Amino acid sequence: MHKLVCSPHGQGPAVPRLEQAQRIPIKVGEFEFVVERTCDLDTLWDQLGQGEFGDDERIPYWAELWPAAVGMARWLCSHADALRGRAVLEAGCGLGLSAVTAATLGARMVCFDYEPEAVRHARRNLSVNGVEAAAVVMDWRRPSVAPGAFDLALGADILYEKRFVAPLAGLFAHALAPGGRVWLAEPEREVSNPAMYRFLDLGFSHRRLHFEKISLQGKNMGIHIIELTRKGV
Ligand SMILES: C[S@@+](CC[C@H](N)C(=O)[O-])C[C@H]1O[C@@H](n2cnc3c(N)ncnc32)[C@H](O)[C@@H]1O
Questions:
Q1: Residue 52 falls within a domain, yes or no?
Q2: Which of 158, 163, 192 most suits a substitution to test ligand 1, by most atoms within 8 Å of the C-beta?
Q3: pLDDT digits (tens, 9 = 90+) for 119-129
Q4: b vs e for 47-81, b when ≥16 Cβ sit within 10 Å of the residue's Cβ?
């Protein structure tokens, strides 16, 4: 597919875009969602110089739809009762499929990503799928949500760096109401198991709830659904 480089509405740095928006149909339970994107990881990767990732190594993973997001969407569909009317926060939402699913199932949904372009895509995907939710730019290292405001936190494929565990534990401890829980959809990776033990040290118990193999656009991954709860809260 041909690629264009443009800056939408003349704002912000130029983002390499696909010539035509790509629409990815995703059937989850009884729902047929569409995930749209106007960028992809390969093109963003090719066009960004190493320096542009910064010390933080901000690799633009947000531009892909990951099998973990489909695993999370499926899990949410089979647990609609846990979502209806609940305040739910999604960390690292990328293109927004988990948020679309949770909002469709009646959650009062806030999703966030630290990449503004990811948040633009998530907003677009919420709208394309006819649901309302807040999608905001936020860094999980600096949470700016009200303390104890959420019943449930979600994250799909967000533990791919060891350094993410401590700030995520801090976010969940801050954002969840007493008795609140976290559902993570995580691919089988070497980094994920030690991450669970770090969560234990940081005051969370963990439980594997489900495992499923997901194939999506040439990516095949086994996805675990893991629940974290705060010890003694
Ligand atoms: C592998 S992608 C997964 C995206 C989406 N959840 C999915 O499964 O398709 C990881 C996401 O976490 C976001 N992310 C990484 N570090 C973050 C941080 N410090 N604060 C907020 N989002 C972050 C990335 O921008 C990216 O969208």
A1: no
A2: 158
A3: 999 999 999 99
A4: ebeeeeeeeeeeebbbbbbbbbbbbbbbbbbebee
